[in-house]
């Protein structure tokens, strides 16, 4: 599979889901998945979903600036690196962020998020 | 090994080497290593070293803001996510950057950089 196509497809799917149906993000994680969100470490699909759905904003819009992707090694996974900005309702300033995902293959031929690290880029 | 300790040690070593002895960075990569530098894809230790040593500045100083680390899966590797800024001589403004590394174990019990993705964070 073309890594650039795969990663763009994943990134579009991830942030569209985040912005329109955040509860459904749980389907992209599994029990062993890890999220580090602004330095806070969370493990497991349910805990990650709880964290993402308890962020102090209900509505948001992610705008993507760059997507980079590489195969992550022998296991058939991919690392995906994203930069962009986050728009919150009533906020004049965009919040710049960087995020990396390590996508691991499922036995069904799809992928899930094994590693997820998110950081705001303070100006 | 404590992942936070491992990643901080690696990050200090990487950027100190970059800032003081850039040619020695080649030792941190192997033939299968990949670098995506501002969207440009480079593979292999020699080509990566050539790229890093042909950047249009001789002197620089990396200042690290955050380091996050997670185990990358069954293979004993680690993903490391860094944010910081880059100081160039004669430049008033700091260049903010984000970078991710996927460190893979060597048979000797050390690590090398398998994946490396670097992006400047334009304000």
UniProtKB/TrEMBL annotation, chains A, B:
Domain NTF2, first and last residues per copy: 6-120
Superkingdom of source: Eukaryota
CDD domains for this protein: NTF2
Subcellular location: Cytoplasm; Nucleus
Keywords per UniProt: Cytoplasm, Nucleus, Protein transport, Transport
UniProt GO cellular component terms: cytoplasm; nuclear envelope
InterPro entries in the cross-refs: NTF2, NTF2-like_dom_sf, NTF2_dom, Nuclear_transport_factor_2_euk
UniProt GO BP: mRNA transport; protein import into nucleus
Main location: cytoplasm
Pfam families reported for this sequence: NTF2
Biological role: Has a role in nuclear-cytoplasmic transport of proteins and mRNAs.
Name recorded for this polypeptide: NTF2 domain-containing protein
High-level lineage: Eukaryota, Viridiplantae, Streptophyta, Embryophyta, Bryophyta
Gene name of the encoded protein: LOC112278834
